[in-house]
């Protein structure tokens, strides 16, 4: 427990780097948001189109995976029912997103649901053969619940900000051949139907930072915290770049989207650390009681 309790501290440098970088990008975008889009705009980019279709997959996998964990780890049937419901619901949602981008319009919803149900069945089948040490199970339950809550919070926060900010997308400005509707990221425009700020794709991709939780689950990752940060950081950066290239978002949009998801992940880390600290205190108190008894 004491070793696990030190994991958050090992991320301190990466956390500082992330927020300092985002702060710098927001300052840059306050002056050059529009110029950057004019320079990078290429909506026909194959990479950008592919990322548009797949960039949110990390976020869409959260519910199926967390639901599967709860189904197998929890002992109460009510918890198991909750877990399998989350697994199938999340998988169907994932199937719908896959169908939206990769299936033809005819019977798209039906095939999306079928794809989602198939994903859930596969996960339930695979989960049957995966075992975890007893000491990790409680942490896994907390992680699963936190990631489920984090997923919903990320979607709600992003959608509320999109509606309230009412920022016009760059590609819409191009269609009008008029940049007068452009507004800086720090100026909310109110409810007007435009939803550029912040980027939902990047916020979804940013939930890949849940990879920071791997050291809490497996000893194999305890000395690989750098990898746990670099992989989701690079992935989120790629998604961010392609969203700008597509003309769907500005630099400030993608930066704020990343901030939202990274902050949600950090809240999960703090929650786990709080649980571990409480467990450590309980463990030490138990030892003191035994010592007093003898």
What does this structure look like?
- With 294 residues, the protein is mainly α.
- The protein is 76% helix and 0% strand.
- Helix 3 packs antiparallel against helix 14 (251-293) and helix 6 packs antiparallel against helix 7 (77-102).
- The relative contact order is 0.16.
- It starts with a helix and ends with a helix.
Low confidence ranges: 280-294
Number of helical elements: 14
**What is the assembly state of the chains in this entry?**
single chain
Residue-averaged pLDDT, rounded? 87
The gross shape turns out to be globular
Kindly state the number of beta strands.
0
Give the strand content.
under 5%
SSE diagram, text form:
Elements: H1 2-5, H2 7-10, H3 12-40, H4 46-54, H5 57-60, H6 62-73, H7 77-102, H8 108-127, H9 134-165, H10 170-176, H11 200-206, H12 214-217, H13 225-245, H14 251-293
Helix pairs in contact: 3-13, 3-14, 4-13, 6-7, 6-8, 6-9, 7-8, 9-14, 11-13, 11-14, 13-14
Short précis:
The chain has helices at residues 2-5, 7-10, 12-40, 46-54, 57-60, 62-73, 77-102, 108-127, 134-165, 170-176, 200-206, 214-217, 225-245, 251-293.
């Amino acid at each position: 427990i004491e070793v696990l309790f030190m994991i958050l501290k090992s991320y301190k440098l990466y956390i500082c780097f992330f927020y300092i970088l985002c702060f710098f990008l927001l300052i840059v975008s306050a002056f050059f948001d529009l110029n950057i889009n004019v320079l990078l705009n290429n909506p026909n980019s194959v990479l950008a189109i592919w990322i548009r279709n797949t960039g949110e997959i990390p976020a869409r996998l959260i519910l199926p995976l967390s639901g599967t964990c709860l189904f197998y780890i929890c002992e109460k049937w009510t918890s198991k029912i909750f877990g399998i419901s989350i697994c199938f619901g999340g998988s169907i949602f994932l199937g719908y997103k896959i169908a939206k981008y990769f299936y033809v319009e005819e019977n798209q919803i039906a095939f999306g649901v079928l794809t989602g149900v198939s994903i859930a069945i596969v996960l339930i089948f695979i989960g049957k053969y995966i075992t975890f040490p007893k000491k990790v199970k409680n942490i896994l339950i907390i992680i699963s619940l936190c990631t489920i809550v984090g997923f919903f919070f990320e979607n709600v926060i992003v959608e509320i900000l999109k509606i309230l900010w009412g920022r016009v997308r760059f590609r819409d400005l191009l269609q009008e051949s008029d940049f007068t509707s452009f507004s800086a990221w720090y100026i909310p425009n109110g409810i007007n139907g435009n939803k550029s700020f912040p980027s939902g794709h990047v916020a979804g991709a940013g939930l890949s930072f849940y990879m920071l939780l791997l050291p809490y689950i497996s000893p194999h990752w305890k000395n690989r915290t750098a990898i746990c940060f670099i992989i989701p950081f690079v992935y989120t950066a790629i998604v961010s770049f392609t969203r700008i290239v597509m003309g769907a978002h500005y630099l400030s949009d993608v930066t704020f989207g990343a901030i939202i998801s990274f902050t949600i992940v950090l809240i999960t880390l703090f929650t786990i650390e709080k649980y571990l600290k409480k467990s450590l205190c309980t463990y030490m108190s138990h030892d003191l009681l035994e010592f007093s008894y003898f």
